Amino acid sequence: IPGYGDSPPVEMVVTAQGRRTFLEHVFQELGMQRPVLVSPSMSGRFALPFLLAQGDQLAGFVPIAPVGTKDYTAEQYRVVQTPTLIVYGDRDTGLAPQALQNLRHLPEHRVAVLPGAGHACYLDKPEEFHQALLGFLRQLK
C-alpha cells in the first residue's frame, strides 16, 4: 500500500478519491476485468472508496477487518450490489466488530468467522481462510 510501511509516500493517495483512482489504475495496468478484490486491514482505505463508487466493476469483494468502514453510511453500503464475503478472526476484538457492524449493510454479503484467529486471520488460520475464500469464489457468476 503506497505510503504505508517502508513504501514511499504518494501524493495521489492522500484523498479517498485519489486512492480509488490509484486502485482503478492498478486494475487497468494489470488488464483485470471484474476482479475479486480482497481487502485486509489498511487496504480498506483503497478498497472501500472503489467499492462504493465502482463496485459494479468487481465480481466480488472480500473485506478482512478493513479500516475505514465507519467513514461511510449504512445508506451508502445498501446500494452496493457486489457479492461480498466478510471475513474476520474471532480473536480480533478491535477492528473486526466495527467493520462487521458497518459492512453488514451490504445487501449481498455473507460472513465467515475464523475461530481462534486474530486480526491477520489468513495467517493464523490459512486453511480455514482458503476454504472460505474458495467456497465464495465458486459461487460467483
From TrEMBL:
It comes from the Eukaryota. One of its GO terms (cellular component) is cytoplasm. Its main location: cytoplasm. It is found in: Cytoplasm. SUPFAM superfamilies: alpha/beta-Hydrolases. Keywords: Cytoplasm. The keyword Chaperone does not apply. InterPro entries: AB_hydrolase_fold (IPR029058). PANTHER family: PROTEIN ABHD14A, PROTEIN ABHD14B-LIKE. This is ABHEA protein. It comes from Cnemophilus loriae (Loria's bird-of-paradise). The lineage of its organism: Eukaryota, Metazoa, Chordata, Craniata, Vertebrata.
